[in-house]
Structures are given as structure tokens and as C-alpha cells.
Amino acid sequence: MRFIDKIRSAREYVVFYVGLALLASISLLWSIFALPMNIIFPIKWRKLTGRWVISMGFRLYLRALSALGACHFDISALDTLSDESPMVIAPNHPSLLDAIMILSRMPRLACIMKAELVDNPFFGAGARLACYIRNDALRHMLHLAVEELRGGSHLLLFPEGTRSHPLPIGTIRGSIALIAKQAHVPIQTILITADSPFLGKGWPFFRKPAMPIHYRIEIGRRFDPPTDVRRSIAELEAYFHSALPSEPCASSVAAVDEC
């Protein structure tokens, strides 16, 4: 390996671990503040404050990744959804960064999270302050999700319930159509592409990728409120398969950093 390549590789390792440490530090610091606020604040203020701080914190984090040269983000298309009426936001899920990107642009967003993340010391207090919904009790989860939509929030729900595998989309669960049907709201698909499989299913968390990584988010098709859950799921799966590439998106290399 040439000397210049060794320098570049060493710099990428520094950037990679600085990025991980920055996310952990931001999350832990906010958890320290959020913990007493969960006790003191009434639920209305907990929800507003928690979601706004998470959105702004993630936006700053993505800007830091851009400034470090680790990633480029073309995700400003999400801004067009912020002021629209309630809907289920349904993205594909190629990477662990997906929720961070979406939440950074949509501060009104309710979110269904894995229970282990809500219990995590780095993320749990902030998630509870924002009144995010645990996914470990199906009936309770459905009830809270419908209440959030009826109360005017958008709802972020990854339709596969986990990261996409196999690409471009895995099996879509029925809960997304059931929630949209009961709340009588549309399902807005979101298309996420990247030129790297970094933090996708099976990617070791501490394995450094080639940098920079280019991420792009586009607004996909909006489906009317479902009347038939099974048909709605089939239509969603067919749409994602037709709209997404089966491999990391090479075209996103030209993405402009608009974060």
C-alpha cells in the first residue's frame, strides 16, 4: 500500500470512531437531561420537547458526519412532508442510520421502536420523553400508534420491522396496514438508497466502510388508507420491489450534501 493510501486509511479510521463516539456522547448526554424531565414534565410537554430535541440533535449529528467527510446526505425531500396531515411514514430500511436521517427532518414524528432500544441507557430516557412506542406488546402498540395519528402526529414505522433483508425489501408485516386502516390515514412510502451496505443486515457494527458514503432519500408513492390489509401489504411489497435497486445505489454518488 502506498504511503498516501495508508494516510487516507488511517484518517478514515479516525473519522469512523469519532463518528461513533459522537453519537454515543450526544445520546448519553441527552439521556441524563431527559431522565428527570420524564418525571417533572406533563406528557404534552414531554412529547413536544423530546421530539424536537431528538430531531435537532440528529440534524447536528448528520452535519458533523458531513463536515468530517464520512457521509453526504441528500435527504431534504423529507421537508415537504413536515406540515402535511397525519400519515404513516413507511421507509425501506437498508441501514441503522435510516431512522436518524428521517427523524432529523421531521420533528413531529412519532416512532415505533424496538423494545431493547427503549430500554437502552444511551437512547431509552430520550425515547420515553418523546413518547416513542415500544414494539413488544402488539395490541398496546397498535392502540398507541392509532392514537398518535388521530392526535395529529406522523408515525414512523419500518414496514419490515427490521433492516431490509434480502435487498431491496424483505417481508412486510401486516401491522403497518392495520394501523393505517384503523386510523384511516394514508401510507407514505420513503425510498432510501446508499452506495454502501454500511450498517445493513449482517454488517459488523465496528467494521469501517469506505468513505464517504452517499445517502439519498426520495418521496415515494402515497397509498390511500387501506380497506383490505392483505391487499395493501401485497401492493406495498410490489411497489418497493419495482422502485428500489437490488444493490447499493451507485447513482447516489452524485448526491449533494443538503443536510
Describe the structure.
The protein is an alpha/beta fold. The protein has a single domain, classed as Glycerol-3-phosphate (1)-acyltransferase (3-Layer(aba) Sandwich). 46% of the residues lie in helices and 14% in strands. It is built from 8 helices and 7 strands; from the N terminus they run ααββαβααβαβαββα. Strands 1-7-6-2-5-3-4 form a 7-stranded mixed beta sheet, with helices on both faces. α1 packs antiparallel against α2 and α2 packs across α3. The radius of gyration is 18 Å and the shape is globular. The C terminus is likely disordered.
Sum up the structure in keywords.
259 residues, alpha/beta, Glycerol-3-phosphate (1)-acyltransferase
Largest sheet: 7 strands, mixed
Which architecture does the CATH hierarchy give at level 2?
Answer: 3-Layer(aba) Sandwich
Query: What name does CATH use for the topology?
Result: Glycerol-3-phosphate (1)-acyltransferase
**How many beta strands in the DSSP annotation?**
7
CATH class: Alpha Beta
Range of helix content:
40-55%
In what range is the share of β-strand residues?
A: 5-15%
Question: Uncertain segments of ≥5 residues (pLDDT<50)?
Answer: 249-259
What's the SSE pattern? Answer: HHEEHEHHEHEHEEH
Average the pLDDT over all residues and give the rounded result: 89
Structural class per helix/strand content? alpha/beta
Total number of domains: 1
Give the radius of gyration. Answer: 18 Å
Q: What is the global morphology?
A: globular
The end-to-end span amounts to: 34 Å
Continuous helix count: 8
Sequence of strands across the biggest β-sheet: 1-7-6-2-5-3-4
